[in-house]
Design a protein that fits this description.
Elements lengths: L4 H7 L2 E4 L13 H6 L5 E4 L8 H9 L5 E4 L19 E3 L8 H19 L11 H5 L2
Parallel strand pairs: 1-2, 2-3, 3-4
């Protein structure tokens, strides 16, 4: 079901972010969003640190406007030792490695191997983001 962003954040128990960083997503989650979230909601960010206004997050957590956060990314990496998020009991911070698992690494190796074989056999690798450069270089 498609809903307005404001409805989504005001009714969700968990908000999990999976977006690139760009002009539209920079500080997508800001003080206004935290104000509209349920005080029992959790924020999970595994995308990019700057998608969340970190100062607003710290304030929301201190004021108990949200229940907690799970962060695999921060606005500054590595974080300053004094970053308050690192000592908050309602925050879990992982070292920007959420994708790493045995399965993910196996899949990554298989994809890289296939791309190399495709290239050596004259095919465009299926995950190549800019295949148009291949025709320009000829």
């Amino acid at each position: 079901e498609s809903v307005e962003f404001s409805d989504l954040v005001s009714t969700s128990d968990f908000i999990s972010l999976h977006v690139p960083i760009n002009e539209e997503t920079y500080h997508l989650i800001d003080a206004g969003v935290f104000d509209s979230m349920k005080d029992t909601a959790y924020l999970i960010n595994t995308s990019r640190g700057d998608v969340v206004d970190e100062s607003a997050l710290i304030n929301a957590l201190k004021a108990k406007k949200i229940a907690g956060a799970g962060l695999d990314v921060l606005s500054q990496e590595p974080p300053e030792v004094q970053n308050p998020l690192l000592s908050m009991t309602n925050v879990i911070v992982s070292p920007h490695s959420a994708f790493i698992s045995h399965e993910a690494l196996t899949d990554l190796a298989a994809m890289a191997t296939k791309a190399i074989i495709d290239t050596l056999e004259g095919r465009v690798p299926e995950n190549m983001l800019n295949p148009e450069v291949l025709t320009k270089s000829q």
